[in-house]
Amino acid sequence: MTAIRMVSSVLLLVLMQSGALCARRFRGGRNPQPRRAPPPPTYRADRGDTTESFPLDFTAVEENMDNFMTQVKNLAQSLYPCSAQKLDYDMKLNFLENTSVTCNDGSPAGYYLKESRGSRRWLIFLEGGWYCFNKENCDSRYETMRRLMSSSKWAQTKTGTGILSPLPEENPHWWNANMCYSTVPLSLSVADGYAFMGSLIIQEVVKDLLTKGLDNAKVLLLAGSSAGGTGVLLNVDRVAELLEGLGHTGIQVRGLSDSGWFLDNKQYHCTDCVDTVSCAPTETIKRGIKYWGGVVPDKCKQTHEGEEWNCFFGYRVFPSIKSPVFVVQWLFDEAQLTVDNIQLTGQPVQEGQWRYIQNLGIELRNTLKDVPAMFAPACLSHEVITRNYWIDVQVKGTSLPRALHCWDRSLHDNRNNKAPPKGCPVHLIDSCPWPHCNPTCPTIRDQFTGQEMNVIQFLMHMGFDVQKMAQQQGMDPSKLLGMLSSGS
Questions:
Q1: How far is CA 126 from CA 35, 180, 196, 358, 433, in A?
Q2: CA–CA distance, 224 with 266 (Å, rounded to integer)
Q3: pLDDT digits (tens, 9 = 90+) for 297-336
Q4: What is residue 52's predicted lDDT score, i.e. its pLDDT?
Q5: Contact (CB, 8 A) for 379 and 391
Q6: What is the pLDDT of residue 190?
Q7: Confidence at residue 21, expressed as pLDDT on a 0 to 100 scale
Q8: How far apart are CA 153 and CA 440, in angstroms?
């Protein structure tokens, strides 16, 4: 409670000062009505300012976090009318200085950027969006997902959500960081009229950002979702080596891979490899790495010489990564189930499919056991760090933003030879055996009606047999239903 009182006193002091400032600005007229708006992302400072912007330690107020964030929001709303102009929270489009590095169709490569000049923390996000591995499905992808292959119709601005949000209530620990949004860096080649320069693009983005303040950074977090999450695993060391080679040895490079930890498992039903959805995971990558000119880390390449495609699978490339990486992965990833030919819409799944789904969770859990920093909920979903509900999902009572903050603190303490913080877990994985057995999983909706389904309705839809599952768990069926209903 002492920490809360101290925070409250500081907030009150700032409010009193801001009130005086507002009074001077608006003297002679009536007080303006406060407008609801998010807080300013950071203060403005000269480029030469070396103030450390390490995130606030909320441990002391953990039990009263809701009250604390309410006070921060109220403070922000009180300060907002004092601003001379509307603050801009969107990321703005920038094209690379090096025009020889392009998108798939030859249009200029670029990225979105929101600067936060008072912060020495940077976040580069790599977008997902599947892939293609021959001319036919690349042509199809170009027609249906053109913005992922061309910059010709990119908007001038992009609004960040989740970990890219500038709002502290949505993004408690990274809201005031410098944000960059880019494409997936997996390749380096030209084929059938398409340029695959992802690996070069990320290098050029980093070089561009060095002229915009990254050279003064303390921490660079390379994050990505889906294929972008795989891109993080393949490129985090490459980015660290690039910065070190350019003389920026003081920048701590870290990785955050979301929904990019795929398995090279056997499909439920083997089918002809005609597109990225029907093709087995291993066959897709084998074909793709040749077509794209896929780039993999040198150490992993040496380990899997002649079979470099192995390095596109998280559990195979992870042992070769030197940079700290935090892995976020749903235990029942929808994209993984899709390429494994498990259909979860329409008719209830068959018993064989149900066993396959359960085994997938077990396999994935086993591949993650040696990952020191991870967050793996037993949910059926895909991607999370850019979703606005990312703060709601918990594993063993800890939210994802909280786990990332604990990881941030542990890395900081390790560098300063301090003991890791107590009660701050970074290795979090669900142990319950079914999809959506975690009550904090994202909402599931019926594909046809759009109505929300609770856990029991969802499991029944999937062909869940209460008697069999209760027998497997060694409990009474009524007790099992009660646990599912209460989310315990």
A1: 34, 9, 15, 30, 31
A2: 26
A3: 999 999 999 999 999 999 999 999 999 999 999 999 999 9
A4: 42
A5: no
A6: 56
A7: 38
A8: 37
Q: What is the pLDDT of residue 323?
A: 98
Report residues of the chain scoring pLDDT below 50.
1-60, 80-86, 487-488
SS (H, E, C) the chain: CHHHHHHHHHHHHHHHHHHHHHHHHCCCCCCCCCCCCCCCCCCCCCCCCCCCCCCCCCHHHHHHHHHHHHHHHHHHHHHHHHCCCCCCCCEEEEECCCCCCECCCCCECEEEEECCCCCCEEEEEECCCCCCCCHHHHHHHHHHCHHHCCCCCCCCEECCCHHHCCCCCCCCCCCCCEEEEECCCCCCEEECCEEECHHHHHHHHHHHHHCCCHHHCCEEEEEEECHHHHHHHHHHHHHHHHHHHCCCCCCEEEEEEECCCCCCCCCCCCCCCCCCCCCCHHHHHHHHHHHHCCCCCHHHHHHCCCCHHHHHCHHHHHHHCCCCEEEECCCEEHHHHHHCCCCCCCCCCCHHHHHHHHHHHHHHHHHHCCCCCEEECCCEECCCCCCCCCCCCEECCEEHHHHHHHHHHHHHHHHCCCCCCCCCCCEEECCCCCCCCCCCCCCEECCCCCCEECHHHHHHHCCCCHHHHHHHHCCCHHHHHHHHHHCC
**Tell me, what's the pLDDT at 41?**
41
Contact 256, 221 (CB under 8 A): yes
Residues taking part in catalysis? 226, 333, 382
Q: Rounded to an integer, what distance in angstroms lies between the CA atom of residue 41 and that of residue 168?
A: 8
Of the CATH numbers 3.30.1360, 1.20.120, 3.40.50, 1.20.1090, which one belongs to the domain with range 91-438?
3.40.50
Residue 185: predicted pLDDT: 54
What pLDDT score was predicted for residue 103?
Answer: 87
Residues carrying CATH 3.40.50, the chain:
91-438
Q: Say what the pTM is.
A: 0.80
